[in-house]
Sequence to fold (259 residues):
Amino acid sequence: IAHFSTGMHPMWQGPLVAPGGNRQSPIDIRVRKSVFDPHLKPLTPDYDPGTCSQIWNNGYSFLVEYDDTTDKSILKGGPLEDNFRLCQFHFHWGESNAWGSEHTVDRRLFPAELHMVHWNSNKYRRFEEAVMEENGLAVIGVFLKIGKRHEGLQKLVDALPAVRHKDSVVEFTRFDPACLLPANIDDYWTYAGSLTTPPLTEAVTWIIMKQHIEVSHDQLAVFRSLLFTSAEEEVQKSMVNNFRVQQPLRGRTVRSSFT
Ligand SMILES: COc1cccc(CN2CCc3cc(OS(N)(=O)=O)c(OC)cc3C2)c1
Ligand SMILES: [Zn+2]
Fold:
């Protein structure tokens, strides 16, 4: 029978700091050191649930992927000058509710963190191009706390057993990612950073929501039932602790949209 372990997955023993990186992610957000920027506009996401296509277990997390061949699901406003197209969202979580998020707020850890990944469709033709460019990507980060059941998330939770193993894919349609955003999206921190998984490129404008969302203990437990390993591997490893270690701020300023 398969032996379950939560041993460190090779990926997460990966590069602690990308070579020559001076704008790496994630970071600790020191609230009192963030600088209020009155020029920051409200964020205006406009997502079409019809662009939702599939869920993919890529061996680090599960990605809910969107058709990004048109400007149907876009993010604009906030710190962004251009239109950014939603291509996928995913989460990072711990083996326990005591940790799991990638970013922290004054060192406070959350049990999980949602990332909604977008790429600059005014300047680039596809994600693969944008991922290499300084202003190529915008990622919204939302902290998760354990509390009441998230009704909108349940449809996704119910689909996860179908992508238990690495490299599995299941069709998943008509999911509105806006249901995962907190009620207040006007209050956020923003800073220049990087992807936290390969290719770790320093292409990301991070937009971290101040307000968290709540999910139930049982919903998060289903995330932990996923596996890093593919069906063929004899030792199965639980998909937990799929977060990167925090990176040096290197003099960067974190701006806030609120006082
Ligand atoms: C580099 O060219 C690519 C084209 C299409 C998809 C991919 C893989 N994609 C890259 C961005 C990304 C970014 C991810 O995390 S994160 N925290 O946003 O950096 C991630 O977490 C599981 C997965 C992926 C997968 C790469
Ligand atoms: Zn992520």
Q: What stands out?
A: The radius of gyration is 17 Å. Residues 21 and 39 are 28 Å apart (CA to CA).
